[in-house]
Amino acid sequence: MALRKYLSGTGLIGTITSGYALLRGANAQKFTWRTALGWLSWAVTLAVTIGTIMDIRKASRGLKVSEDSPIHGKEEKYFSLKDANKELDKRRRR
Description:
By secondary structure, this protein is mainly α. The protein has helices spanning 4-7, 10-26, 33-60, 75-78, 81-93. It contains five helices and no strands.
């Protein structure tokens, strides 16, 4: 249930479908600079998506999110008391 908020995000779905489209198109054409730029663009999109997922996880646990994050200022939207208690318990065990 907790993974649903990450897996149903449009950023992750878009990244997966665009990667699949690039992969399917790679069979039909030779590797050119345009193909390389396509894969580079996909890699940047994947990195941003992973970063956003990490920021959502931080915000749900009540931790600070960096100022350049797309969810900065909207942390309370993602806050979960259950996740915050998990984080607190984890810190106490250390």
